[in-house]
Amino acid sequence: MATSRIDRRAIPAxxxxxxxxxxxxxxxxxxxxxxxxxxxxxSILFQGGRGDIFEKYLETFAHWHHAGWNVTSFxxxxxxGSGRLTAAGNCGHxxxxxxxxxxxxxxxxxxxxxxxxxxxxxxxxxxGHLALRALAEGVVAPDAAVLVAPxxxxxxxxxxxxxxxxxxxxxxxxxxxxxxxxxxxxxxxxETRASLxxxxxxxxxxxxxxxxxxxxxxxxxxxWRWVIxxxxxxxxxxxxxxxxxxxxPILMLVAAKDGLIDGKAALALAPxxxxxxxxxxxxxxxxxxxxxxxxxxxxxLNEIDTFLAERxxxx
Length: 315
Prior knowledge:
Elements: E1 15-21, E2 27-33, E3 42-47, H1 58-66, E4 69-74, H2 97-114, E5 119-124, H3 126-137, E6 144-148, H4 163-171, H5 193-197, H6 201-213, H7 224-238, E7 250-255, H8 263-269, E8 276-281, H9 294-311
Parallel strand pairs: 3-4, 3-5, 5-6, 6-7, 7-8
Antiparallel strand pairs: 1-2, 2-4
Keywords: Hydrolase
GO molecular function: hydrolase activity
Organism: Sphingomonas agrestis
């Protein structure tokens, strides 16, 4: 079922890479792979996490494409192949997460009428956070949503309960658009980046291959502003009363032992969503559930396929 159907290190035949300009003129890179059937099963907009590139998910896109779905994804502004926001080209920066939400809103407004339903919004990590926030704010109207290891809380690290305050202090000591740290996905840790993301060495190596062969799409550490705004957006989203008004069916996949973000924050928030199916993974899964070793990835894809079959219906 979940066996790779494509070369993970090549854009599949039939897929297109285009450009999309947001209303403010900001340039974004877009992946689009239309279903081969005359009547597609539906359409998926998949959004990755901080620093992600859509090339990392080609294997998973192939799984959905084979099932008859149109699959689209775009790199968030300031990262991947989209226009950068700081002179430090590899630094993932944004002034306010509301900028991401506007991009998602405006892209959806053009994408939805051009793609048949049911329309499914999916988001991994930061993409999951932004997808849920967009649902709460009512700026997108999918028929179903899938949140994969959603970034709904940060690991507190050495500063414990004072982590947000420490980020504001440290970020304010200089230009907040500067990189918050030098390397890795998480500061103050002895864990390797690979171990934080996946137990599958080959799938991890795919990302490194793409970065080596297309260095312009590589994104390094976040800026201090990204970190500060992330704390704020997580805190405000968790307390947003509009979560209780979301009527879109949601599947949430959580890596409870996630070493990168706080999986417990997602588990705590899930009960506030009216129509939620929660699936939790244990120590067998690191952060990138859809790029994990086959036992985890296969289970995740099965859960998504079942959810889409049961709940993703065009309105």
